[in-house]
Amino acid sequence: MSDQQDRIYATAHQQVTRFSFDDTVVRVFPDMIRRSVPGYPTIIDMIGVLAARYAQPDTCLYDLGCSLGAATTAMATLTADQGNRLIAVDNSAAMIRQAGTLIAETGQSERVSLLEGDVASMDFEPCSMAVLNFTLQFIAPDKRDALIQRLADATLPGGILVLSEKIRFADDAENALQTELHHAFKRNNGYSDLEISQKRTALENVLIPETLADHEARLRQAGYREIHVWFRCFNFISLLAVR
Questions:
Q1: 48 assigned ligand-binding residue
Q2: pTM (2 decimals)?
Q3: Fewer CB atoms inside 10 A, N or C side of the chain?
Q4: According to the model, what pLDDT value does residue 83 have?
């Protein structure tokens, strides 16, 4: 199910519908994310490395907007002897079903609680690590401050948030260049101009990016004491925020 090639936008759609993480997307998601997000496999691997560095023994770890559980698995693998409980949340029932199957194949199911729910409205247990891996960009902008604040309040001293996002740039020329470089990346991975255009239309007003300065200001306001950009490629970044 998870090895299919992404051909969702390969033919012209009479009307491009709003993007959603439904069964059709779930079937091709590993291929879609690998060909669409620069450095995605590296980000996943390094989330595991960050968990090994920052996860505190016998504490909760969150993967919020977990999709198929790749970050969950990375964290679980490199904290195997620390007694951590992992909570993976997604609002897509299709994603949660397939994540359960994939996580079971890793032998980590006993440590992982999979929840179908809206991360923008949930409360959090005390935790030493939370991951929002290309999740915040899909949450309504007016709910983002409160979500980050609740996460910060729940994070133990020395704990972290890993925040990965597609960003926009305040300078129009810079934004145009970085967008074109991202499109070149996608073309190099076999996507046609038609696929790129239709996917962009489907994501309009669904994926709403912010600037790096917006993210840093929100994290500081919430009380994170250190903020580091640890990954960037074109208009994709990942931040490490330390409580």
A1: no
A2: 0.96
A3: N
A4: 94
